[in-house]
Amino acid sequence: MTILFLIAALFIVYTYALFPLLLALKARRKSALKPPTVETWPRVSIVIAAHNEAENLPHKLESLELLDYPSDLVEWIVVSDGSTDNTHDLLKSTFNNHPNRHVKQLPKSLGKCGALNAGVAMATGDIIVFMDARQKVSSNALKALVPYLSNEDIGAVSGELILTDENSLEAGNLGLYWRYEKWIRDNESRLFSTTGATGALYAIRRADFKPNKIGTLLDDFDTPVSLLAQSKRTLFISGAYAYDKANNDIKLEFRRKVRNLAGNWQSFQTNKWLFNPTKNKVWWQFLSHKVFRLLVPFAMIAAFISSALGDNVFLNAMLTLQLLFYAVALAGYTNLPGTKNKLFNFVSVFIQLNAAALVATIRFFSSKEAISWR
Hints:
50% of the residues lie in helices and 15% in strands.
C-alpha cells in the first residue's frame, strides 16, 4: 500500500507542481517571440456566438466601439444561437444596417461551434477574431494579436482572461488559479505552442479555419489543435485582455467546469493523434497539462484508499493529513464560522476543480451525455 500511495502522491505533485516548474526551466532558454512590424493592417472579422445574451451585449458592444483599430477594417458578426430573449432584436436595432455589422439568427440552437461556423461563413476579413458575448476586451486587443498572424508559422494567437473583481474569497482564489494557469500557458507558448486558447479572445487567419463538428464543446481547444496538426503554433499573448468577473455562485461555477472538462475528453477522442509523440510536437505538455489534470482525482482517491488500508505509521500519518485537508474543504464549502479566509477557500476551490474533473470524466464515459455549451 505504501508504494501505491507514493505513486499516487507523486502523480499529483508532478501534475500541479513539478511539471510547471520543469516547463518554466525549459522555457527560460527561449525568448518570447516579438510581433512583426505591420505596415498595412488587414481586415478583421470579429465573430461572436450569443445565446440569450441581451443583458450582456450592450456592454460588449460598447467595448468593441473602443477598439484601437481602423474602424473601416473591422467587421462585427454576432450569431444569435436560438435565443429566446430579445438578443436578435437588440442587435438589429443597434447595428441599424451598418455596412460592417451583421447579425444572423439561428431559429434552433446549434451550440457554440455551430454558431461560430455560421459566423465565419459570413466573414470577409482576412483575420477572424473569436470573442464571447459577455466579456469586455481591452482597446488594444486587435493590435496586440493581429501582427503575429503575419508569420505563417503562427496559426492562432490567444489573449488572456483577467478577473476584474477579486474582492470575495471565491473570486480571489479563482484569480489566483488563473494567474497560475497563465504562467503555464506563457511558458508553453515560449517553448513552442500552447494546447488551447482563451475562448473569450483569440484570433486565426480565415484561410486556416476548419468548421468544427456540430456539438463540439470546446472551439478554443479544437481549433488550435487543428492548426497544431499542421505544425502551426498557438501563442499566448500577455497584454491582450478579456475582462470577466469571477462567479461567486459555486454551483454555477461547478457546472461550467464540468462542461469544459467533459469537452476535453470529447476533444481527445476526436484528436487521438495528440497521444502520439511522433505526431504531436507538444506531446509532453499536452499529457502533463491537459490529460493528467483530468486523472488527478483518481490519484487522490487511490492515495486516500491506500493510506486508509495501510498498517504503518507513515500511512496512518498520511491518512490523518488527508482527512484534515478534506475537513478544511468541507468547512469552507459549508461556510462554517471562522472559515472565511484564503486558506479554507483555496482548499475548497482545489477540491471543487478536482470534483468537477471526476464528475466530467464519469459522466462522459458512462453515458456520453450531451452537455450544452450554455
